[in-house]
Amino acid sequence: MRSFVHTASPSRVVFGAGTLPQVRDEAERLGGSRVLLLSDGSPVLRKDTERLREVLGDLVVAEFDGAAMHTPVEVTEQALDLLRDQRVDCLVAIGGGSTTGLAKALAVRTDLPQIIVPTTYAGSEVTPVLGETADGRKVTRSSPAILPNTVVYDVELTLALPIAMSVTSGINALAHAVEALYSPDADPVTDAMALEAVAAIGRALPTLHDNPSDMAARAELLQAAWLSGNCLGAVGMGLHHKLCHTLGGTFGLPHAETHTVILPHAMAYNAPAAEQTMERIAHALGAPDAPTGVFDLIRQVGGPTSLRDLGMAEADLDRAAELATAQPYPNPRELTRTGLADLLRDAWHGHRPQAAAESVPDLRALTDEVAASFDGCTNPRLRQLLTDLARTLHAYTIRNDLTPNEWQRAIDFLTEAGHITTDTRQEFILLSDTLGVSSVVDALANSRTPDTTSSAILGPFYVAGPPAAEHGTDIAGDFTGTPMWADITVTDQDGKPVADAVVDVWQSNEDGFYDVQLPDLDGPVLRARFTTGADGRFTFWSILPSAYPIPDDGPVGKMLYTVGRHPYRAPHVHFLINAPGHQPLITQLFVRGGAYLDGAPGQRDAVFGVKDDLITDFVRQTGPTPDGRPVDGEWRQLAFTFRIASLGH
């Protein structure tokens, strides 16, 4: 059992496109009447800051546009002087992590309410965490007083964010999610948020790289940043964040870019001690290995991969490793100065992390190439089916690490199935039936019409064009068995009789064989075609169906016996109903109390074809029969009404 403690964030979140005009209402909701508007003064934010100033109107009594990276204490003190001088009662910050950090630093010193309007994907706006730099060292602390009261996410504000900044900011958010997954404070809620964020970032960044104006991708990435930020606020962070704070606070490296370079290397360092977490991350990314998957994602979208390119001096790497190990902090793997120095050297050179020893090669490019080969197909549905089939088969092959011998055995199996298939024996339908695929297709196609009789699979023994028969005909021929009188009615969904419905009926004999399995039999037996009368009815004589094995002398039968499954079907009669103006119905009626209706999975009906409403009474009778036919001893009576759907339903 997993034990955990989870504290939900009390922040109010407003998310959408075009939400900026709501900021004034949010400020007034917090009692704000004298607002300090915070920004970093960057040209890219100028227009959005002006719009926010207009939205706030006369609530703004002061502005401070000097927010700086890593939240230097001296900058906070400058803003604090302005705040006190103007008797500010509410903070509103627009921008990225630097502006958010300044708002937090002011709030924790004054207990003023704060509203954050993020324009990047940093995620720190929903955390009670503050990192401040003083005397060349970055110190992090956490307190409920640091947590912003309200966050207003406006997807439109991220459209102006250059793609390079979008990438590094997005990877910064990814880092929050990754470290949350192996945090000792992790719980099911943070796990779910983190994995969704990882998957969303993995989808959105490549899309934005190709089209920076894609609003759906921007929205997905911003939502992922919110999820990641919640993770960061709920659990403690590990090696990655400690290293980045050291590199930023002491060596002045840019915040988001440093997170981007370090993340895959920190993951590679921790991977031996967090194998399950890395597997979950890899699965969310659709990559064979988590650290290399993140590195490849960064490289794919043009993000930085080298500390050297960020201005880090090689001579400072050992000093950085020393600082990062100076104080203990939670991390999956033991921290050593030598290990971190090696990590930093790999990051400085921009080396791709080594994939885990047991990981499969990255075959995504091959899969993409195969899928793209169908792009020229002019039939959209066929293109979709073939593309998804290729991706599904590749994923199955990789997931199961399929060997050449197993691949060859599968080819031999299909070849054998082809050889044994004839006009009267369909091994591929048997395969589909026994894998449950036929039942899935049947359910998808026929479960959307309420108030109608359930459908069932066609089965491998249907033969088109059975002989026409009059009402009351005995279709059993010379076969022996318990006589059965069937009185069948076909109606529409409202119970109105359907006249002139053509109904094909077929079943096995007492020994479990269909006529097509008996080469010495002369002509079709136990199969016929009836047409309903004006009252929607038809009647016939047959024999009570019995359980029978599907053909088990071919590859499908061998498969069943190999895995410990039986080949038997529960006793039933097949019906195929076609009526003008109505949807066709393929179904079966099962004998209540018959064999293989109950039991453990793999011990019930071999083709998963039984549905509860198709199990019916074949009532025991003795004495006179409905049509006066003399019968010695017991006979059975089947009375059933099929409800079929009108076209258009």
Detailed description of the structure:
With 649 residues, this protein is α/β, with parallel strands linked by helices. Helix content is 39%, strand content 16%. The protein has 19 helices and 20 strands. The strands form five sheets. Strands 1-8-5-4-2-3 form a six-stranded parallel sheet, with helices on both faces. Strands 9-13-10-20-19 form a five-stranded mixed sheet, with no helix packed on it. Strand 16 and strand 17 form a beta hairpin. Helix 9 runs antiparallel to helix 11. It is elongated. The two termini are 49 Å apart. The model has no long low-confidence stretch (mean pLDDT 93).
Summarize this structure briefly.
By secondary structure, the chain is α/β, with parallel strands linked by helices. Helices cover 39% and strands 16% of the residues. It has a six-stranded parallel sheet, sandwiched between helices. The protein has a five-stranded mixed sheet with strand order 9-13-10-20-19, with no helix packed on it.
